[in-house]
Amino acid sequence: MVSSKDVATQAGVSQATVSRVLNHPDRVQEKTRRKVEAAIEALKYVPNAHARSLVQDTTKLITLLSGPLYNPFFVETTSAIVTYANERGYQVNVQFVQDDELAEAYATAIQTKMAGMILSCVFLEDAIFEQLTHMSIPFITYNRKHARNEYFVEIDNVQAGYLAAKHLQDLGHTRIAFIGGSQKVSTFRDRFIGVQQALGELPQELIIHDTASKAEVFKAHAKLKTLSAPPTAIVCGADSIALEVMDVAYKERIQIPEELSIIGIDNVERSRHGAIELTTVGSISERNLGLVAIQELIKMIESEKKPCIQITESVKVFRRSTTQPC
């Protein structure tokens, strides 16, 4: 049986370093982390005895690692996942985590006996992908995907960014800003790529990434407002960001869309509320990504084979009340 000591020897590091790579990969230098990951892959190492039991015993528990509940997207998808899983006889262990809490969440999750895992918070480069593969645990990601481009459900995020920006451009806006999240995740990276495809290279002053909280969105809006030539329109990398931008704008007596047009991406249910009417981009089918993902995961769990799931939903603009001609 391969042990962490064997991995350490193979990689030429200490067992403590192996442990850090498994539990806190963000705290290990990239060169060292890659050496340890290569040793893990070569030796087909499974982290601990309890984790090894996960691939040998059957269980009706599914682990869900979801983004935070202040984002309505995760409220809707979590509800759909739990409801469907329960209908199929599965229980769901839900953890709501921020990106900076992922390493600890992963370490806890893989020590729980489970039938499979569903994740909405994976990074493009993420060690958990390899760990779950080596442990033969069925898993799927939704909304985000890993750089290996396997086991995911998403909307066409590049096209979503493109359509959002093109919509504002077609309305005559030339000063268009982008407010999004971390470029370490596929969702925001791809949506920003789409925006650039539509508009070309944006001035750096009109690009703001890493807005993961209400406070950061407030700072982003304040920064744009103080420019000598403020934007007349904003592409928000998610509906959750757009809703926060709208809130800040209304509190500052900025008229939407007369003074500022705003478009989001995701088409969450709240964006359709009569008092909000957010213009956004979302799936043409309007299928809940969480529901699609849990359906595919349970198929994987109950099948002898493990098909490679690659689902990308086509998108369109849902024009409502927050955008108008410049």
Automatic annotation (TrEMBL):
Single GO term (MF): transcription cis-regulatory region binding
Key word Transcription regulation present: yes
Pfam families attached to this UniProt entry: LacI, Peripla_BP_3
Swiss-Prot/TrEMBL keywords: DNA-binding, Transcription, Transcription regulation
Top-level taxonomic group: Bacteria
InterPro entries linked: HTH_LacI, LacI/GalR-like_sensor, Lambda_DNA-bd_dom_sf, Peripla_BP_I
Residue span, HTH lacI-type domain: 2-56
SMART domains: HTH_LACI
SUPFAM superfamilies found in the cross-reference section: lambda repressor-like DNA-binding domains, Periplasmic binding protein-like I
PANTHER family on file: HTH-TYPE TRANSCRIPTIONAL REGULATOR GALS, LACI-RELATED TRANSCRIPTIONAL REPRESSOR
Protein name: HTH-type transcriptional regulator DegA
